[in-house]
Prior knowledge:
Blueprint: H1 23-26, H2 40-43, E1 45-57, E2 62-73, E3 80-83, E4 88-97, E5 100-103, E6 109-112, E7 115-118, E8 129-138, E9 151-156, E10 162-167, E11 189-197, E12 201-203, E13 207-213, E14 218-225, E15 237-239, E16 242-249, E17 255-262, H3 267-288, E18 298-302, E19 307-308, E20 314-316, H4 335-342, E21 350-352, H5 359-377, H6 379-390, H7 407-410, H8 418-431, H9 433-444, E22 460-462, H10 464-475, H11 480-487, E23 494-499, E24 503-509, E25 520-524, E26 527-531, E27 538-541, E28 548-550
Parallel strand pairs: 1-11, 17-18, 18-20, 21-22
Antiparallel strand pairs: 1-2, 2-8, 3-7, 4-5, 4-8, 6-7, 9-10, 10-15, 11-14, 12-15, 13-14, 16-17, 19-20, 23-24, 24-27, 25-26, 25-28
Helix pairs in contact: 3-4, 4-5, 5-6, 5-8, 8-9, 9-10
Amino acid sequence: MTHPLRSIHIGVVLALLLSLSSPSQAQSTTPYDSGGELSVEQASYDVLHYDLSISLDPTTQTVEGEVVVTASVHAPLSWFVLDLDPLLTVSTVWQVWKGDEVRLPKEQVEIRGGQIWIRPFRTHQPGETISYGVAYGGSPRIAPNPPWDGGIQWEKTPSGADWIATSCQTIGADVWWPVKDHVSDEPATMDIHIRVPEPLVAASNGRLRDIEQHEDQTRTYHWHVSNPINVYNVALNIAPYRVIEDEMESVAGDVYPIQFYVLPEDYEKGLELFEEIKDHLAFYEEFVGPYPFRSDKYGVAQTPHLGMEHQTIIAYGAGFDNTSMTRGTDLGFDALHHHELAHEWWGNLVTNSDWSDMWLHEGFGSYMQPLYREYLLGADSYDEAMMQQRRGIRNTKSLAPDSILTSQSIYAGHDIYSKGSWVLHTLRYLVGDETFFTILRRQAYPSPEWETRTDGSQTRFATSEDFQGLAEAWSKQNLSWFFDLYLRQPEVPRLSITRDATSALISWTTPDGLPFPMPIDISIDGKIRRIDVPERGAVITVSESAELVLDPNNRVLRAGNGE
Length: 563
């Protein structure tokens, strides 16, 4: 395959692999972690556009590709640095200069572990727009346990056809293409050209622009992404898919396409799930605002791994089984699809700029499934789902630590799913439904005007501090005590009661004596009332024979409820 901007044929990539890589690097099997603190070199530029072309050979399980990276410079730049797994090797590097491609001599390119260091002809200055190209190839890392331990999958469909997919959230996009591998830098747009043997179909992010037929019985699928995208969301989904298609009218008033890329043998099951997919979309639009990427599409692709929130092409591998991600519990809907769809808002529309705030993705995404049960089946079903989540919370690490983390470290025991969901559950109790649902919608879209945008300006980065500020603004409360306790250290408060013949003392015990003026519901002989619990505790007058139940509906995340 030849890149649209290139005159250099890349069929010789494999013959040139050793020119820029050492044998020891080429044998590495350990991927480099994604995220962490940016180097000075990578912090000096922001990516504007990726133009990625890749050819896949399922027979040899190899790839050949090239990428042109266009970036804006905002600090003097003497090295242009990209990430690439050492299993893949670089053959050619060039600079696009005044419309021409200038091939760089190999002494201006260094391979340092999992990075490509490119030395420009001169130091780039702030305000410049630069473009560099890299041709690469090889056998990319095969995913050991996708999607959690990712890479590429070379699988077979039940009928024996090739089935290829990528998943790389925790280890980074650099396992299969050269990229600035950091959540803080999303390109504004992207073009993806995928060349595959017939009759395979290549589904990816954005909207399909073109399918080019080649004489060697291959086809190139050209996808264009018109909205900012996190690079771990860029995905390949390749199989002899059939496409189920429809359109949906958004609450914003415009119409966007819906596509489900399904294996031929599962077409009838796909038709059934497709109707549920539309129901899920309608729910999210009602509660948190219009689907964010209407200028591209909403897409789902059946995959050989469980699932992933790949923007506009959600990975779906639940096998049409509602219990696939709920340890055998049927919530009454396809929970896997519902969760991954949530990330189109919580993760793709609103993105954390550092992995330490990943609960804004996973906690918000996890809360939407109990909320959907409440929407479908009522409050009791919501309560049941929340208690199911509560039993999985470990409280061993801070939910949003005050440190810069990598992708793998935040998933190692930080409770970002269920505890994040329970923080929202408790916040809802504290501020009330009307305020809470306003906060939820404004976390997605800061104002109604934002809900009408489709040009990419609707996307944004957000931090835990941003969410705290939003919650405080709408609730008109200082909530530092709430977020300090639940986000910045691992333990949860303990609620206790001490009784005598005529009264009861209700109090909170917190780690390190942290303030926690959380009101609490109390059932007195079956009648529920809410009481304020100041630092010294709350004393209520109650007979010795009265039956007391604290927090009877489990509205507050605390020690003891569900553990």
